[in-house]
């Protein structure tokens, strides 16, 4: 089963998000708060891990096909 993260987005939406999606939304600065095992983390206030470390996706992927 995929790991899900409880997330509150900057637009006020609260949802459970797959870890990979969460990482993308976090990198795009769309996340306001999220829940860790020890409580809620406020993005921009609390310490976060390095977003570039262990990334396996391009941050701003160009999804257009090359013709």
**Which shape, going by the Cα principal axes?**
globular
Q: Mean pLDDT across all residues, rounded?
A: 80
| Subunit organisation of the chains | single chain
Percent of residues in helices comes to 10-25%
**In this structure, how is the largest beta sheet organized?**
4 strands, antiparallel
Strand and helix order: EEHEE
Radius of gyration: 13 Å
Content-based structural category: alpha+beta
In what range is the share of β-strand residues? Answer: 25-35%
| Unreliable spans | none
Count of DSSP H/I helices: 1
Our measurement of the CA-to-CA distance between the termini, rounded to an integer number of angstroms, reads: 37 Å
Widest sheet: strand ordering: 2-1-3-4
Strand tally is 4
């Amino acid at each position: 089963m995929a790991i899900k993260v409880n997330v509150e987005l900057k637009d006020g939406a609260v949802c459970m998000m797959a870890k990979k999606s969460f990482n993308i939304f976090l990198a795009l600065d769309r996340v306001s708060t999220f829940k860790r095992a020890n409580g809620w983390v406020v993005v921009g206030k609390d310490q976060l891990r390095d977003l570039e470390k262990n990334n396996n996706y391009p941050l701003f992927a160009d999804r257009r096909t090359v013709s």
